[in-house]
Amino acid sequence: MRHAESTLRVDADVRALADSQFRFVAGVAGDGTEIIQSVNLPDRYVRVVDGAVRLDLVGTSFRRVPRTAGVSIQLPTGEFLTHDQGRLTAGPADGPRTRFLLS
Questions:
Q1: What's the rounded Cα separation, in Å, for the pair 51 and 31?
Q2: Sign of the Cα pseudo-torsion (16, 63, 54, 98, in order)
Q3: How confident is the model at residue 55 (pLDDT cuts 50, 70, 90)?
Q4: Full-prediction pTM beyond 0.85?
């Protein structure tokens, strides 16, 4: 996952490493929730609005759901972060497109 300005994408070959660095910080939607913060733009957070995923000054709270390979990132609505052909969106859990490897 990386950002290009305020757009978030999933790309295999990220040349600007700093654009692919994020950290999980305490969320605001109760215990066990987290928001995802950009490392190189620390005042920006991952936000989901009407299914679109972007960087913004306000973040969306998520829960990490462990999977066999990686984690899925669940929104309070029950939807998950998912990716299709490089585009990040919010949608139902549907296999490997909702799994993310964290390092």
A1: 24
A2: positive
A3: very high
A4: no
